[in-house]
Amino acid sequence: MIAMDGLTTRQQWILRHIQDRGFATIEAMAEEINVSAQTVRRELIELEGRNYLIRFHGGAGLRQDLFRIGYAQKISTSLEGKQRIATVVADMIPPGASVYLDVGSTVECVARALGKHSSLHVVTPSAAVAMIFSTHPQIDTFVTGGSLRGANGALVGIHAIRTLASFHFDFAVSSFGGFDPEGQPTDFDPEKIALRQAAFDNASRRIGMADATKFDKTALRRMLGGHQLTDLIVDAEPPAHIAAALAQAGGRLVVAAAEQPLAASASMSKRQISEN
Fold first, then answer.
1. Domain spans in the chain, listed from the N-terminal domain onward
2. DSSP letter at 36?
3. Coil, helix or strand at residue 4
4. Nearest-CA neighbor of 84 among 240, 245, 261?
5. Largest Cα–Cα distance of the chain, in whole Å?
6. Which of 16, 42, 113, 153 has its CA 20 to 30 A from that of 93?
């Protein structure tokens, strides 16, 4: 439990509210306790100054682990492969770019890899991603807001979708749950899929990521809607039907080879499938 000695009743409520959810938006808290957004913002500034939480655009999160045990186990699955994938993706994104980062453990690896950049403009519906960037002031981070869903700190719903519609991204980066028999990316949660589609609608490059454990899984529904991936980053050679589907769409396959060191992404195996 967090020690709350010396805090006002309102400040205690805010901390408990954020503790229960991991992350909360100013708008939602102001509506729930019937005060102005500016009042909540002042309380968050005070609480941040006393090291209880970290503020972001539109909300705040605790300075402690956001994840339940089950999600922590998910993060550790195929971690080396995810880190190789993340290194490749981070090297694809130049300083100053505008980037949508989705939710999920692989995307969080990308966020950590992007910490070396001198400047970026990041928009994310992930409270976990925002927490990673909290120690990187050179990266301008905007959190979409929305309803918190799941242990990975995803913010979903119409508010988040409308927010994404107001941006244009140089890069949209997302992982997914599996592939269908035709080699198309699929995922499980319709609300999170809707976020990705909204971001892809406004992105010049659409980067998908999948570690090898996803190759033989099929999730609930296709992820991309009317868009196709411009790049697919994987940690091993994918099955033929996945490679063929990407080639047909004109996408680029990049394999982050296991034998290469993480920092040597420039020498990793790359294949421009669309040219075959």
1. 9-62, 69-275
2. -
3. coil
4. 261
5. 67
6. 153
State the pairing for strand pair 270-271/139-143: unpaired
Task: Give all strands of the β-sheet with 185-187 in edge-to-edge order.
Answer: 178-179, 185-187, 221-222
pTM score, whole prediction: 0.68
Q: Which of 64-68, 103-107, 258-262 has the lowest mean pLDDT?
A: 64-68
Task: Tell which residue, 175, 245, 183, 236, has the closest CA to residue 210.
Answer: 175
CATH 3.40.50.1360 describes domain 69-275: yes
Q: How many other C-beta atoms lie within 10 A of the C-beta of residue 202?
A: 16
Contacts of 153 (CB under 8 A, 6+ apart): 22, 23, 61, 66, 67, 103, 126, 127, 128, 129, 131
- Quote the percentage of the chain above a pLDDT of 90: 48
CB atoms under 10 Å from CB of 126, counted, come to 25
CA atoms of 86 and 235, how far apart (whole Å) = 10
Class of domain 9-62: mainly alpha
- The SS3 call for residue 181 is coil
H/E stretch holding 203 = strand 203-210
Task: Provide the 8-state DSSP code for 239.
Answer: P
HSE-up (13 A, CA, CB side) for residue 221: 11
Tell me if 226 sits within 8 A of 184, measured CB to CB.
Answer: no
Mean pLDDT of 166-183: 93
Question: What's the pLDDT tens digit per position in 99-115?
Answer: 999 998 899 999 999 99
Q: What is the pLDDT of residue 147?
A: 81
pLDDT at res. 151: 61
DSSP class of residue 223 equals: S
Alpha carbons 154 and 23: distance in angstroms, whole number: 9
The pLDDT assigned to 21 comes to 64
Nearest by Cα to 214 from 243, 238, 192, 182: 238
Backbone angles phi, psi at 203, to 5 degrees: -120, 140
